[in-house]
Write a structure and sequence with these properties.
Helix content is 6%, strand content 38%. It contains two helices and eight strands, in the order E-E-H-H-E-E-E-E-E-E. Strands 3-4-5-6-7 form a five-stranded antiparallel beta sheet. It has a three-stranded mixed beta sheet with strand order 1-2-8, with no helix packed on it. The two termini are 22 Å apart. 9% of the residues are buried.
Length: 130
Amino acid sequence: HDAYFYTPGQTEIPRVAAKKLDDLRSPLALLLGHAALARELDGLTLERVGIYPGTLMLSGVPHGMEKRVSRMSIGAEPDGRITMLRVEETDGAINSFELEGEEANVVTPAGAFRFVAPPGTHVVEGMPPL
């Protein structure tokens, strides 16, 4: 299985084998539980947030991305469900993902996640640049 990093308007679409998604350039590593956060993030902090008891926010700076990312935060519920990812970049840009309605181990047809490159684009091997 492969992961594609498609951005509308770009002509090149980086592709990488899903099993190689082992760093924080892809939030997929977090969602699949493949990231050891203590090794991936410097200056870890943990705080309770939100109006519901037990909601936690883990924050830190990803190793090797200090020049680009000033803070990465992961919101999680007591049962371990990740409900939010937020990346604050050094240029002031903020990317935030809110996750809800998660269903574990849902059976899906093999072709449900087939990527087709849009016209005028082409796929290249390797991770997108930092």
